Amino acid sequence: MNSAVAAPEKEYPRLSANQSASQDYEIVKLIDGPIDALYQYNNQSLFIAQSGDDLWKINSTGEVIDHFNTSDLYSSGLILATEGFIDWVFTGDKQQKSYGEIIDASSYSEQQLLDAFNHAEIVEFLDKNEKGLAYLYQNGKVEILDISNQRDKITDLVYMSHNIRTEYNIHQDETDINGNHFQSYNKKPGLFSFIKSEPSLPRYAAIKGYEKLTYHRPVGVVETLLENILGAIFVSNHSTREFGYEVGYSHVELTIKNQVLKFSVLSDEEFGPKRNHGITWLDPKFADAAGLKFMAVNYRRKYLAELNEKSLLPYYEEDVGLYVLRKKIPPNQSANAAWQLNYTGLHSYYPIWGYIEFSRADVTPAYYWLHKRRPTPAAAMTGDYGRKAEIASPILKMLPKSLAFNWQDFKDRNFRLVINNRDAWFYNADDTRIAITLEFDSDEIAQAFKQIGNINETTQLNIDMVKKPYGAELIVYLKNTKKEVRLNKLRFDYQEQAFTPKSPQVSSDKNQTALFIAYEKSMLELNPNVFLQVLEEGVPKNEIVPYASSICYYFARLAFQLNIDNKFTENVTLMNFYFDKIHSLINYNQTDDLQRKNLTIFASQVIYTGSNIQNTELTKKAISTFVEQDFDLEKETNRAFLFNVACYYALNHNKPQMLKIISRTLALGRDPESYLTDTDFQDYWQDPDFINLIKPVAVAP
User: Fold this and answer.
1) Alpha-carbon distance 234 to 572, whole Å?
2) Banded pLDDT at 276 (limits 50, 70, 90)
3) Cα-based distances in Å from 334 to 50, 337, 342, 448, 556
């Protein structure tokens, strides 16, 4: 047998089921997916979990309260980018702040330098671009000392060394965190520090049993036998390959203040003489009365596609994530049960990610949930995309108002998504990449929680993307072990994201490479200036045309991301640059379908940006350039773009054009109620022509 088919004993619920609890304590999964490291701020009960470039902040009661994405995290907790710094770890502020003026410290004595370092709360050193710099953080500001004359004293700390990896790194891959050291200077005790991981059982944990499921054979019996025989004949020091190893459930008990919490976790015997329960234990050294304890479960090996692991991968995946043992948190009175978002859907190579907004306006920020990249079974490389994407959020205690998620399909065909008997069509998409928003009816979802009832288990808010012959259907419902309640009044909308060009129309050259690197840097820093500078200075005007497809993609992606992060000022710079210096050079051709799709997305972002900041001049540029010249709106299929055009005509009281565009969007499956809730159309809410247009397809209250 090659698959685990049984369930663990009911007395020991599966760790990932979030059903392990005692009278006062509970174990819950905070983050789904592999975890690289866990940090603690200033020896307080404030923690940062890291997975690649994703960071989550966890408070003293063991709840995820914020999320941030960056590749510029330093071991001190500061986020140092080229253009500025972010002190989100300490302040919660995600806005990039400008550095102070660079101070020439070449004439400083050794004592003056040490005094400056010691006066700061945090010191970081960088040997960069042939300069030596010291970043001094104090009272929410960063001052920079130019110590280029002592560059040779700056050394990057190797956080991937064997010692650091085995003691601090939870995941098998290397933790990506920047660090440095200045010769003969010992930094102050950090405000931000690794929590050391313990692979062995802590004193409060015990293995109480093992439940065998199957005997996994990584390699077939015949192949293994033949290899052993040939190895014994031809290789003097041949070590015999084992025929397989046991797979089952380890039963674990944690004892906290005389209370016992029980759970089971998938285990195997491959990696040692004792049964491997696969948990890394993380106990903060300086814990206050909250007394939080963390557990991380990661993949067994770095490449799970090897050795016939495909059959075991889904079972390993259920447990993978970061867990916390915490005091029970009572449900909010507005919800009759604690609940958890559970998404299952069609396979997607891209991470599936999104966020939840709650009905209580004072709950900020919205909770982000992500489905990180998983090891890919070998069969997927040959076209088998059958493995479902699955993700579960932390336990939540407040009613959701809306949720949005990003998803990608890799089929080279039309794709139809049905939600509550309404269609979302994606026409001839090369890799459909969409952002879907679901808005809940407050009365319906409150009533659904009441119907489910307040039983002693976690309610699942299920978002299922079910495969259909025509594409997929999205089904939303509440569920527990006794009841299931379908949600029928939710509204939805979607927006297509930029389509990656299959390949540039020219072979990769220095210009193509420079543009790509500059684009990536601008995306990382959320600042278009690097990309625009390379575009203006690095590529002569008469050579722009061969790169047009890629350039349109870069503008579309940057505009989309800047709007997501409310970088409207930066977006205006990007968009004006396009209209003033690029559009006339790219030789737009309607037959270039991919370029047209990306320009449509870019145009939609321009209209949105102009309307959001009331920049009428910017909006008019998009309308006159794209709507009135380049695009045939009767053939356009991008609903987000068409909706934004309809908003423009509504605000400018061009009723005939507005009605024409609305009719086109309704034919494409646009929810008519969106025109009754968006205030851009409020002047027409009593207009007979407007009402008659949307009335035949409007959803009854």
Assistant:
1) 70
2) low
3) 32, 9, 20, 12, 41
